[in-house]
Design brief:
Order of helices and strands: HHHHEEEEHEH
Helix content: 40-55%
Radius of gyration: 18 Å
Oligomer: single chain
Largest sheet: 3 strands, mixed
Structural class: alpha+beta
Strand content: 15-25%
Number of strands: 5
Length: about 150
């Protein structure tokens, strides 16, 4: 989806709530989409970089406010990967996250991988898993290979 399609969808959702599409809202959503998995600080840094030395970029509090609004609109999701700030990603394609505890790499994995576990949690505990917010910690293939170990 190009930025025009993002802007049209965002504009429609904002209008439905009596809000308008501001350049900051469009730029924050475009940055989330481009970065795929980014903290608010990384999103702000990208916006400052895009604005250049003479351009205006939203400050950190504006980035946070816009991320909260975009999440309420269902356009972005956040995931906590452990310590530190959450990461944000477009909500178009639900997925879970796997995080390497050694190098910090973040990868997306199909949400269907947890279907059986989610069904068991629902049946046994009455608990519904919000897959868009799931992050699993472990060790990535590259770190295992560097360490000379095989997966268990």
């Amino acid at each position: 989806m190009g930025s025009e399609g993002v802007d049209v969808g965002l504009a429609e959702r904002l209008r439905a709530r009596g809000l308008r599409l501001t350049p900051q809202r469009a730029r924050v959503l475009a940055a989330v989409t481009a970065l795929e998995h980014a903290t608010p600080e990384a999103i702000g840094a990208r916006l400052r970089e895009e604005a250049g030395p003479d351009g205006a970029a939203p400050d950190t509090s504006t980035v946070y406010r816009n991320l909260e609004l975009l999440e309420r609109l269902g356009l972005v999701w956040h995931t906590h990967l452990g310590k530190g700030a959450p990461i944000y990603h477009a909500a178009e394609h639900p997925h879970l996250h796997v995080v390497c505890a050694s190098c910090g790499a973040v990868e997306s994995a199909p949400s269907g991988l947890l279907d059986e576990a989610a069904e068991r949690l629902a049946a046994e505990l009455g608990f519904t898993v919000d897959v868009g917010h799931v992050a699993l910690s472990g060790t990535c293939r590259a770190c295992r290979e560097r360490a000379g170990s095989e997966p268990s």
